[in-house]
Amino acid sequence: MAARLLPLFLAIISLLMISSLIRSLEGSGIGIYWGQNGDEGDLYETCNRRTYDYVIIASLATFGSGQTPVLNLAGHCIPSPCTFLSSQIQFCQSLGIKVFLSLGGGGSGRPVLSSPDDAREIAAHLWNNFLGGQSYSRPLGDAILDGIDFDIESGSNLYWDDLAWALSNYSTPERKVYLSAAPQCPLPDYYLDRAIRTGVFDYVWVQFYKNPPCQYSLGDTNNLFNSWSEWASYPGVNTSFPAVNTSLSLGLLAAPEAAPSSGYIPPQVLIDQVLPFVEQISNYGGVMLWSKYYDTYYSELIRSYVNPDVLAYDKKVHDEVLCHRLSSSRYLLRDEM
């Protein structure tokens, strides 16, 4: 009797595993950072490309501790306000793409919070000037952004948890304020650890680059896989802990020249080796890319493998791109040994 039931049991287990993978892929997508190079195209072009699910505008570089907030969008609009971007943001949102404002970044800005009260004041500023509140001086015009991204790589490591809680409190049943974080891959992240542990972030896209101990290097996935597994079980990211359903995404470079210390993963290596591993967790969120300026073809090459069923993406485009560009030497589809 037991022998006859074994094939049925194995079939059920297989179906459960497939169902889990499908649920994981349903929540996955591609995020892109935009705003740090005037030659990367506008938001109309970026979103009409239809390979992205999230666009992160980078960045509000300086704020807090009584400083005048400084929006740095490189060559796109200097100085701010950049109110003409309002219609472009709304166009992206009309395609189902969520648009975030990134805080901090790796440039020369100074994001510093001096106290919990200061964090709450900055949350109010973000709500009124970029989210669903009201202000006469909205730098990006009337467009209401979907959320705020924490990319804190300088300044102080204090009170980011207070800011995350304060922003999350602006969510309502009618309009959610989405929160994302982009920590470096070494654990714990110096700047964002306490904030991530709150569990209020919807998306955590970890930067698996510029950090050799936890990034991919020529032909070797061990450091990357070990770090991914640590992040998948980390408080605030593990789905058994957070206050919201946090998705974990793989932060990658869109081209080798995007960072001098690299961590760049060739598209074919990502497709064949990396994605089958990272997709196994239930809260797999997809891929985040730095940045739009460097993403000539990378997102198109990987799109259908990150999530083959995203409303903004045309499968035919992907097939054509693969047919014509899969052998492109610029993207080093496989490692050059």
TrEMBL record:
Gene3D superfamilies: Glycosidases
Domain called GH18: residue spans: 28-309
Record CDD domains: GH18_hevamine_XipI_class_III
Stretch forming the signal peptide: 1-24
EC number, UniProt record: 3.2.1.14
InterPro entries, alphabetized: Cts1-like, GH, Glyco_hydro18_cat, Glyco_hydro_18_chit_AS, Glycosyl_Hydrlase18_Chitinase
Keyword Hydrolase: yes
Superkingdom of origin organism: Eukaryota
UniProt keyword annotations, A-Z: Glycosidase, Hydrolase, Signal
A Pfam family per the record: Glyco_hydro_18
Family the UniProt entry places it in: Belongs to the glycosyl hydrolase 18 family.
Name of the featured protein: chitinase
Biological source species: Coffea arabica
Organism placement in taxonomy: Eukaryota, Viridiplantae, Streptophyta, Embryophyta, Tracheophyta
